[in-house]
Amino acid sequence: MVDTAQLRATELFRDLGDGDLEALASAATERDLQRGDVLFSENDEPTDLYVVTSGRIAMVNRSIDGRESVVALMEAGDLFGEMPLFDGQLRSTDARALESSAAISIPYEPLRALYERTPSELWRVVELLSTRLRVMDGVLADSVFLDVTGRTAKRLLEIAGEEDDFSLPVTQEELAGMVGASRERVNKAIASFVRLGWLEQRERRYRILKRDQLELRAR
After folding, report:
1. Please, what is the average pLDDT of the chain?
2. Is the pLDDT at 102 greater than 90, yes or no?
């Protein structure tokens, strides 16, 4: 059985009673993923939602000509794949591991039973979806108010978190998908940060030298 503590650590399940949590854990399975493994593809028939326990998993949209846009990056503790549980639609994105990762897969049926039995738990779902909408509002605002250089600075800061030394967990193409621009334009933006002395780069390793300048550029 999946460790209930891993489920309790997510926002959606943090206040569940022990019995309900154990019921979900007994129905869940663990998935180990290597870089490039696909959990599901756009337009797949959905059956489960997922909780990331380690690594990073990208939610990816693909255009007709094969270009990709990384619409969300899921890390440890994040939950995804929940929308079809409520709207019955097909998957709206691909879910692909960007590095060695692990995820818990929870079937929809015990979740439906939980929400039918305890409707008040749906407030956690409302909270989760509201957060999703706020994030998408921010992404849309970035696409309108920030140029490619500003969006690149913002994505690098998000990946770095509180650390000044960090490695890029994605390829240049995947980073470009997160920024919403071509790889050439993103590489040009990074080169400008290096030239200005804000950033050091050695292959996929980076060191932030002037975080305040990057933060200003990301606004």
Report:
1. 89
2. yes
pTM of the model: 0.78
163 exposure class (CB count in 10 Å sphere: 0-12, 13-18, 19+): exposed
**What are the tokens at 10?**
């997510």
Nearest to 213, CA basis, from 142, 146, 157: 157
In this structure, which long-range contacts are made by residues 65-72, counting pairs with CB atoms below 8 Å and at least 24 apart in sequence?
67/177, 68/173, 68/174, 68/177, 69/177, 69/180, 70/170, 70/174, 70/177, 70/178, 71/139, 72/135
Hey, where are the domains in the chain?
4-143, 146-217
Contact 206, 166 (CB under 8 A): yes
Separation between Cα atoms, residue 214 and residue 219, nearest integer Å = 9
* Locus of tokens 């690098």: 156
> What kind of fold does domain 4-143 have according to CATH?
Jelly Rolls (2.60.120)
Give the tens place of pLDDT for each residue, 16-57.
889 999 999 999 999 999 999 999 999 999 999 999 999 989
CATH fold, domain 146-217, is: Arc Repressor Mutant, subunit A (1.10.10)
